[in-house]
Predict the 3D structure of the following.
Amino acid sequence: MKILIVNGPNLNLLGRREPDVYGAETLDAIMARTAARGAALGVETEAFQSNDEGALVTRLGTCAGVYDGVIINPAGYTHTSVALRDAIQACGVPCVEVHLSNIAAREAFRHTSVTAGACLGQISGLGGTGYVLALEGLVEYIGSKEKGS
Amino acid sequence: MKILIVNGPNLNLLGRREPDVYGAETLDAIMARTAARGAALGVETEAFQSNDEGALVTRLGTCAGVYDGVIINPAGYTHTSVALRDAIQACGVPCVEVHLSNIAAREAFRHTSVTAGACLGQISGLGGTGYVLALEGLVEYIGSKEKGS
Amino acid sequence: MKILIVNGPNLNLLGRREPDVYGAETLDAIMARTAARGAALGVETEAFQSNDEGALVTRLGTCAGVYDGVIINPAGYTHTSVALRDAIQACGVPCVEVHLSNIAAREAFRHTSVTAGACLGQISGLGGTGYVLALEGLVEYIGSKEKGS
Amino acid sequence: MKILIVNGPNLNLLGRREPDVYGAETLDAIMARTAARGAALGVETEAFQSNDEGALVTRLGTCAGVYDGVIINPAGYTHTSVALRDAIQACGVPCVEVHLSNIAAREAFRHTSVTAGACLGQISGLGGTGYVLALEGLVEYIGSKEKGS
Amino acid sequence: MKILIVNGPNLNLLGRREPDVYGAETLDAIMARTAARGAALGVETEAFQSNDEGALVTRLGTCAGVYDGVIINPAGYTHTSVALRDAIQACGVPCVEVHLSNIAAREAFRHTSVTAGACLGQISGLGGTGYVLALEGLVEYIGSKEKGS
Amino acid sequence: MKILIVNGPNLNLLGRREPDVYGAETLDAIMARTAARGAALGVETEAFQSNDEGALVTRLGTCAGVYDGVIINPAGYTHTSVALRDAIQACGVPCVEVHLSNIAAREAFRHTSVTAGACLGQISGLGGTGYVLALEGLVEYIGSKEKGS
Amino acid sequence: MKILIVNGPNLNLLGRREPDVYGAETLDAIMARTAARGAALGVETEAFQSNDEGALVTRLGTCAGVYDGVIINPAGYTHTSVALRDAIQACGVPCVEVHLSNIAAREAFRHTSVTAGACLGQISGLGGTGYVLALEGLVEYIGSKEKGS
Amino acid sequence: MKILIVNGPNLNLLGRREPDVYGAETLDAIMARTAARGAALGVETEAFQSNDEGALVTRLGTCAGVYDGVIINPAGYTHTSVALRDAIQACGVPCVEVHLSNIAAREAFRHTSVTAGACLGQISGLGGTGYVLALEGLVEYIGSKEKGS
Amino acid sequence: MKILIVNGPNLNLLGRREPDVYGAETLDAIMARTAARGAALGVETEAFQSNDEGALVTRLGTCAGVYDGVIINPAGYTHTSVALRDAIQACGVPCVEVHLSNIAAREAFRHTSVTAGACLGQISGLGGTGYVLALEGLVEYIGSKEKGS
Amino acid sequence: MKILIVNGPNLNLLGRREPDVYGAETLDAIMARTAARGAALGVETEAFQSNDEGALVTRLGTCAGVYDGVIINPAGYTHTSVALRDAIQACGVPCVEVHLSNIAAREAFRHTSVTAGACLGQISGLGGTGYVLALEGLVEYIGSKEKGS
Amino acid sequence: MKILIVNGPNLNLLGRREPDVYGAETLDAIMARTAARGAALGVETEAFQSNDEGALVTRLGTCAGVYDGVIINPAGYTHTSVALRDAIQACGVPCVEVHLSNIAAREAFRHTSVTAGACLGQISGLGGTGYVLALEGLVEYIGSKEKGS
Amino acid sequence: MKILIVNGPNLNLLGRREPDVYGAETLDAIMARTAARGAALGVETEAFQSNDEGALVTRLGTCAGVYDGVIINPAGYTHTSVALRDAIQACGVPCVEVHLSNIAAREAFRHTSVTAGACLGQISGLGGTGYVLALEGLVEYIGSKEKGS
């Protein structure tokens, strides 16, 4: 099983950027934690980060037949990007949306997710651990689908 | 460590109620699954279900000093209950909100959560597994807080 | 055939409560009138009243396999209760929503029904007679379904 | 007693038009059913259908002193016609609004009725039977008013 | 003269719950203070608290002929409960709404009161003293009405 | 100079229809009063009434080159008819909108006029006299334009 | 009969201020025209202009028993001033609101009048002539009331 | 193949009406152009214009079994007519909506089309040529459907 | 201790102005009642009334170091004045907002208070007695603060 | 004559991506169809696709003096991109917006186009044929402009 | 060249009022700083402050022919005053709006400026320096206009 | 001191693009003007332009420790980009937002800035000079902060 982890704008700054909101852990550390959990579950993970909406769309457009699932943190694009929502819907594999902070407890414009409706589900507010949980949830979901078929 | 799992209205009907939306697993089965994972993590779980907003509020009001964390699925009260939000905020222990279905992919009135802003975070759309993941996330969060202090 | 009639908050006060809006007939009198019509149609009716949202949800949750249809007047919960809407949707038998007064002719916040979308239909503004008509409509609907099957 | 039944736009197509939404019964059949029930109650009914907002307004403007009540299905004009609402208010006899389908369970723009606030009440979602019930409700209402005076 | 004081959800936690928002005084202390002031005015007070919307509605439904006035702090139900508003309107005695905190200075969803429109008036932001002032205002109002009649 | 007076839906009922809102004067009486004032000013007036939106549009479409100005009371179509607004804009002669009642003091849905933005101006709340004043205003406006050219 | 004409902010600049919107006539010229028409009708007029909301409120507060009616152009305060609306409601004599331009054909924030709902009626878009027509309408209205009493 | 072209209110004035917005071409000229293109494609076209919402609804109600497709320019009714939307949905043949001007570049109230959602598609802003293109698009669509079956 | 009582627009008319809404008591009588209660509590009160938003702002700007608290009834400015809200926030002494009528039970535009968020609290609907209660509440609040320091 | 065809995000996936919504034809096939039609009309076409908002903006910024017109399908950026709207407005050549699906019949957030207001017109819901029709319409428009100059 | 600087409500309190929001500099100090910069540029400045909306309107109404430009900080009136916006538009000289704090980073009701649309531009969030920059920008703008003419 | 100037989409077209809105000066000329002013103040400036949201985000992500301040004109991304707002907030140096045109005087969708709330302040409507003023304001702000520390 192979899972792609897609990270959106400004997430490359994690650890340095507003640590009281986003935590002190770097993106690399979170990706490593998630990969380790993946390895334990016999799942290969691959991480991709871009600040570019178009690059994120393009990457999702190449997932079909390559990955079994996608974990995506669309960051600032979460609240505005129909293009990304379309890409998620088009990619043909189940996606789980992750947010480090609890977006429901922040500014009003962060309460709405344009992209979540095209995903399988969403995990928010649990910091970097959210990626690990998303991986577990996704693996279980894919496993149950395979068993079902 | 002791975790309370609070389940709101209609969740007693799980398994029988619209299985295409909420899955075929009963609430007891999900609670058992979550308790098993808790046991593996050395955590005691206790489950409470009520259709009654007041009973849910009352139960949360007795958590301080008894539980280390709360997992809550407010179900239909999610979108309207300020009383429940106040109870979560007042209870003094970290809460994680869980939804079986992906509320962002359903009717517009389910896209907003009144209660989530008072929680630590939210997990939705991953079925009964969402409870298990919430437990793991909560346990890790509480552990890291304790370590920090 | 067996029909449950569910009455929401403050309806126990009928006859005494603002008679210019809700009429002078008591709830018991209306229930008796409806039961009489039911008897004439060979239908058994049972009435339930509660001021409690949770009790109404619970009662609806026990309808499946016991009643063939439900008549419900959610009163003040009509305009806010997603929990009740979910209960109606989950109960598995056809429901007809009844309002004594014409909610479209009252305050703006009474113009919207959260629950009606989960019902078969709605009757409003015809006083206690609305229950009798709801019974007739429900009986005919159930009969036609049975004939169809 | 004499009751006018006013039917709005596209209702002439009943039976042919989207039968899964509006049923397979023709308007003539529903009118006949309603007239039969009227006859049983000693009430004369008369049916009028027009696709034309102005013709509906004009017809209502001639009701005073001729009919004792009106049953009206404004169809597509329900959600937009202030002119029709004014006509109902001006006609001087009690009106009951009927909808074949449950408008609260359809597109958002069908959830609001501009005309219902000027009526005595509303029946929706009970198919052609809604007309029969409206007739019964109206007859009882008029009777009780006459008794009262 | 006899006055009922009705307290809504989470108010049983006063003193413990977010003391920076709600103060350090317990509900019992506030009720005692209010009763003392009542005694000084020759007025008997009785206090009732419930987290349950239905229980609050039921209690209000039994006020007619027993109490001369009601002081109510609907807490979290303030912003959503049409059922409670109906109960206030139905109870037939004058009610004064009290809030410990200044709801106009908190989150936007607390700026609107569904229930206040059915009350005689509202006092907010003056802590436990608000109850005492409400009592004084209510007693004066009832006295002036009696004098007027 | 020749002025057309266009009257919309339900205005044929004036005098009979809700006289407390619209006055006791019939449309014929108002038209006669306006014509008399026109005669005094050397202006020919012609009155047209229809309940039909299309007929009103058609009549306005034949004004160019025939009338020097139009007085229009769109009644219930005021608040909804883009077609009528387009007809006013297309007719090529100045129009003054008249309302018998003060629409700003009635239901919220009467506060907005879709048609007024395409008119020269609006007179409301002055009863039948509003037509006479509109005539005077229109005649003066047309006169000043002619002098100006 | 004595009529007060109240002119709000910036109207002192008429003739100089954006003449394409407000015309080239000065306020004095308009007041003179209106007074002349008043004299012809046997009515005394008095004109008052202030840029100051408070001064306008104060002036209206002294009308009772002195004037038989008021013509008011609240200018920029039209769209925002509840204080002025209250003053109109409190002044105890009938008021007619006048606007030189057609406020329905300008920016969206000018489409709504806070004050008009407290007036007898409104005249807009007919330039300085609007005051003359308002005077005529008001005189006729007052006359008919006196006749009626 | 037979295509009906339905034109709504004020379109009979084309060529004369605001030519800077709608162009100088008359409706007859546009219809002739479209018919010529139809003839070249072996398609018979028939044109119908009415200012009357009801007449447009009625015409659409007679399309089933007579025409293979409909081109409709609902003009002013585009933005308000649920009745016309219902008629399009009920008529049983594919419709393409045409607008001469680019409604997205005009007043805000023209940005929304109530009717377009019931059509196959929409062409706007391309003047009279829009009808010709709609015809081509419709013919190709119908052809591909027939081939497909 | 010294308290300033600030009264906004139209309050000079109390007793004469719509007595069914605002009561028959004059402002002077209410101020006298409040001063008497102040005297009993050993508190000096001073009353200021102006119809002028600017004068109210200026008066509040001179409170620091002179008064210990402010009671303010912003009347019509309540719902619109950011300048007054800023003045309250800037004045540096605690303010209590008072309304004679229950603003939550009147027109929708009176339900929102722009100024209340900058105050300590609000009392509404208790007539002139509201000022007396505000004084008591304010005196107690100031006392408790002084005791606390 | 030279026409640029600009295709936005996810359109590279056409044929594979949700074929029930977007059809089975690939973007290359549609471009080829359009180029063939262009060749028949003596028009050269060039196609550009990017998932990147910035790249689309940049491409439009180089159109002036190179192309005579632009056909653009902004896909997901249609509903949100002010940058793209500005680029269309800045590019100095006429643009026609194309959508494969009927955006008015899909989710509410697809009903509004931010970009269409800066275009000449829009074609939607006619699949790949929409591009061919846009080309024809654009060619005719440019030809008529050239004839006019 | 002569520039008027107009300061609105509460700005007389600068230095004392909430220094964490508005800074510790007094208005006099800021005006002196701005005058010094003006002197360096050969520009005479004059400062005017009032808490009174009407006085601000009146002052703006006397600018034409006296000043070459206006710098205005409407403070609390920024968000509500149509009268002030009209005065700016009427004054006939270019105005620049200044705010000491960044209004986009404060409460939602401060994000909108009613007056800015009538100005040349706006400077916010740069403290007292904003006035100096506005002066420089205005001087340059006026200079370039004069050069251009 | 080193300042980065970030220019968003379409600004590379300045001078050519709608010169009546954006002026005839090219971006290079404005940058040169700003750099010259910087040199006079002993400040080094560096300019960056991209049409790409992601590239703008990335550039801001590299500012910390390299630049002392940022001037940013987000152009079309101003009104929609949460990603850019996050980047401004994350970059750790003070930013001033600049707009050439007065966005408050243009289309409604340009009145709101998503990014300004994360900046120190905003300058709009003063053309290319706005950059020079932003530089001066930023330099003074940074200087005063350094002095303060």
Notes: The beta strands of chain E are 2-7, 44-49, 69-73, 95-99, 121-124. The domain at 2-146 of chain E is CATH 3.40.50.9100 (Rossmann fold). The helical segments of chain E are 19-22, 27-40, 53-60, 82-91, 129-148.
